[in-house]
Design a protein that fits this description.
Layout (H helix, E strand, L loop, with lengths): L6 E6 L2 H10 L13 E5 L5 E6 H7 L13 E5 L3 H13 L4 E7 L4 E7 L5 E7 L5
Parallel strand pairs: 1-3, 4-7
Antiparallel strand pairs: 2-3, 5-6, 6-7
Length: 133
């Protein structure tokens, strides 16, 4: 028996806000997802993004507590090119989401930026830059 990677799960404070954020990035959730305690979006390759409200997690794990301080995990989204990194970052920041790291040409050869979802999880936006800075 060998476990297989199947899904990424996030615990969210406000399901509607989280669904709106991830939909803006192209994730496809069921129509009523923002009103549900659990929802899923299928990802390329067969994995899934799972969102559960804090209340849902507490219903089966009563001692669970939301983490405090900085996050230790991030979702990384490959963009079609450096221009898309910039455009997606600007779109999200203009919509009121926190821009943690403005787009820049990273020394490892990527155009790279970080935004936070409504719960403060990092979402990395990247594409090959074709140059180093």
């Amino acid at each position: 028996m060998t476990p297989r990677f199947d899904a990424i799960g996030l615990v969210v404070g406000d399901m509607a806000a989280s669904v709106a954020f991830y939909r803006r990035l192209g994730f496809v959730f069921p129509e009523d997802a923002g009103r549900q305690p659990h929802t899923e979006a299928a990802l390329p390759g067969g994995t899934r993004l799972l969102l559960d409200t804090e209340e849902t997690v507490l219903s089966f794990h009563p001692s669970w507590r939301a983490p405090s301080g900085g996050g230790r995990a991030a979702l990384a989204l490959l963009c079609d090119g450096p221009e898309e990194v910039d455009a997606v970052y600007e779109d999200l920041v203009a919509a009121g989401y926190h821009g943690e790291l403005k787009p820049w040409d990273a020394f490892w050869g990527q155009r790279y930026a970080v935004v936070h979802d409504p719960d403060g999880n990092g979402v990395d936006l990247f594409a090959p830059s074709g140059s180093a800075s």
